[in-house]
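Q: What residues go here?
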């Protein structure tokens, strides 16, 4: 697993959102894009992470940041997640994990003695020119939004 790093250009992609509409990274030219990869909608850690971003979306927007969450879940499951947790940002479906692989976040994981392939919980802040500005890979799910905000407020 070769994860992209700060200074790399973000791969171009288009995926279906929670409403079944195609969303492309190119749609957000001139804005910073927070692309966060998470393993599975409606699981405890992913819910905590998503709700933290939901609750700080306004502040992120003040920093010209748009949020895109990406997981292997279907659009239908993402719609359910959005509705149940009142999420106010775009979730994208990557069932074949092509985009996750392009960003280098799909790989071997270990959980409770089992080894399997899955998404690693890593977030990329992409600048207005499409270059990765910052990679967030060390955080607790409940602190994810604050780690991002702290970084933005330093800049």
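A:
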């Amino acid at each position: 697993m070769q994860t992209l790093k700060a200074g790399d250009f973000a791969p171009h992609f288009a995926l279906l959102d929670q409403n079944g509409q195609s969303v492309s990274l190119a749609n957000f030219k001139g804005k910073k894009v927070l692309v966060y990869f998470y393993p599975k909608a409606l699981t405890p850690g992913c819910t905590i992470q998503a709700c933290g971003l939901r609750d700080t979306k306004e502040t992120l927007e003040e920093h010209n940041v748009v949020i895109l969450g990406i997981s292997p879940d279907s659009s239908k499951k993402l719609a359910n997640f959005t509705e149940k947790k009142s999420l106010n940002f775009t979730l994208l479906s990557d069932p074949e994990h092509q985009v996750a692989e392009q960003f280098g976040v799909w790989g071997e994981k270990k959980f409770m003695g089992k080894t399997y392939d899955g998404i690693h919980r890593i977030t990329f802040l992409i600048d207005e020119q499409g270059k990765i500005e910052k990679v967030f890979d060390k955080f607790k799910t409940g602190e994810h939004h604050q780690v991002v905000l702290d970084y933005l407020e330093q800049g």
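A: Context that may help when evaluating the design: The CA atoms of residues 132 and 138 lie 17 Å apart. The chain has a mean pLDDT of 96.
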